[in-house]
Design a protein that fits this description.
The protein is built from four helices and no strands. By secondary structure, the protein is an all-alpha fold. It has two domains: 85 residues, Orthogonal Bundle (Cd81 Antigen, Extracellular Domain, Chain: A); 32 residues. Belongs to the tetraspanin (TM4SF) family.
């Protein structure tokens, strides 16, 4: 969330007051973060040192009074606008990832059916084996000794 807030210059989901639902930033919570927003919501001056407490006690204030201190725009809309601006790139990436996967699955299915057809064709050709119904009859064992051996 910190990256999104820094990159898109936004704060919270819908607006900066969404941070009041967080147990650490709730106005009734103990600690230094109570009723404040993270420092990534702060409007930074590039010439000065980063003030990590600039969002202190901003949740309970009106939007107009804090708009020069923190970003008041929500990140949901900011990210959605970015996706809309870059939909062609996103569609290209999605197609570039999914198309090879789909082709791999298709080729695998074709290969499996080809192997199964080959197995079925060869098993039909060589059915006159030892264990099939066309096996040769065994010799009659009459007149043999105790071990079923023929006399020499």
């Amino acid at each position: 969330m910190d990256f999104v807030q820094k990159e898109f210059k936004c704060c919270g989901g819908e607006d900066y007051q969404d941070w009041s639902k967080n147990q650490y930033h709730d106005c009734n919570a103990p600690g230094p973060l109570a009723c404040g927003v993270p420092y990534t919501c702060c409007i930074r001056n590039t010439t000065s040192v980063v003030n990590t407490m600039c969002g202190y006690r901003t949740i309970d204030k009106e939007r107009l009074s804090v708009q020069n201190v923190i970003y008041v725009r929500g990140c949901t809309n900011a990210v959605l606008i970015w996706f809309m601006d870059n939909y062609a790139i996103m569609a290209g990436l999605l197609l570039g990832i999914l198309l090879p996967q789909f082709l791999g699955v298709l080729l695998t299915v074709l290969y499996i059916t080809r192997v199964e057809d080959s197995i079925a064709e060869h098993s039909a050709t060589f059915t006159d084996g030892l264990l099939e119904s066309g096996a040769k009859p065994s010799m009659e064992a009459t007149g043999t000794g105790c071990c079923m051996c023929y006399p020499v």
